[in-house]
Amino acid sequence: MKTSARGAARMLSGVGCVAALLLPTAVTAQAAPLARVPAADGKKGQELPGMPSSLDSDAPCTPASREKAKKQDWSRQRLDLDRLHGYSSGTGVTVALIDTGVDTGAEGLDGRVTAQGTAADDCVGHGTFLAGLIAGAGGGGAQLTGVAPGAKILALRGTDQRGQASSALVVAAVRAATEADADVIAVSVALPRRDAELTRAVADARRAGAVVVAAATPDPPRGAAASDEIPPRSYWPAAEPGVLSVADMLPAGVRPDNALATSGVDLVAPGAGVVSGGPRGDGHYLGAGASVAAAYAAGAAAAVRAARPDDSADDVARRLTATAYPADIPQLDAYAAVTTVLSDSAAAGGAERAADPVTVRDTASADRATDRATLFVVLGTGGVLAVLWGAFALPRARARGWRPAAASASARPVAAEADGD
């Protein structure tokens, strides 16, 4: 019996040790999908060339990328684009994109881009990259569609051929977009000084019924240290009344360390490690900055306008902010913007969810999942310790005849004396 008891004890001890080693791994494997925040593609090994927002005066045009993305990036998953397209793809909506131009024959944009003036010549490639985020058809195995793949793009130049923004060019582009009856006007450049003509052009565009979306800041200068030297300030036209000001965020929901500081931001959207195409070839690039985030917001506005054609521009802007993921700065949720049923108090942020569509995401569910995982760890660890204690203590208690340890210790000398007699 003693031998079998020791064998059982050893077996239980071994099982307990194995369980103690494997339990944290098992808990992590089950809890991680609920709590894990996806990282930018650059951190996950999807190495692609970067898409610049401007070029040096003597630099050649951005060359065609020889690399292709092998998977859908985190930004499209974050915006629930796969499910969004079951409700709206932006069909019938025109988005005027004011940037470096858009190549009308770019991969995934064929037949849906018109360009005014020199905007069809995109030497930098940045405007074409953003157009893919707004309305790209994607293709291949990476599922790199834009937010509103059924929308049309009106390409307008807000920069020179090297990507240097100019107030005069932006004013002319906003007025051209208004004359073309664009439903959404996306201004991806950000100017450091207010311009009276630009103020009037934006006001006219809003009166004409366009949703005006603008990058809250310029894309960060080369070198993280340079952004620290620039004091917080407003940028234009993002700071104009009624314009939806959009800044960039990392997968964790925070702004990048090198982002330029500003105030009055209405939304943040993915703006790091974002994948799209360019004007030459069928390869892919990685892009970042508030301009990328503004393109995503403009695509979401197009999806809302297509799904709710009777809504005013102000209604669309309120919907984008009221259905955003709650945070210090609301985070764009394109799927919720289209599928959420807003109450009459939507202007104050109140929302009433429809039964069928998925509601606006809430961090409470992730917090509850984390709490359950923590409780599981505590209870599991307690169970393992109980098994180990039983494996150690039960054989010894049986050997003492189930007497308390103190009583057994005092009984041993008496027994020895009896044996000596």
TrEMBL record:
The active site is at D99, H126, S291. Residues 1-31 form the signal peptide. It comes from Streptomyces dioscori. The chain crosses the membrane at residues 373-394. It holds the Pfam family Peptidase_S8. This is Serine protease. Residues 40-75 are annotated as: Disordered. Belongs to the peptidase S8 family. GO terms for biological process: proteolysis.
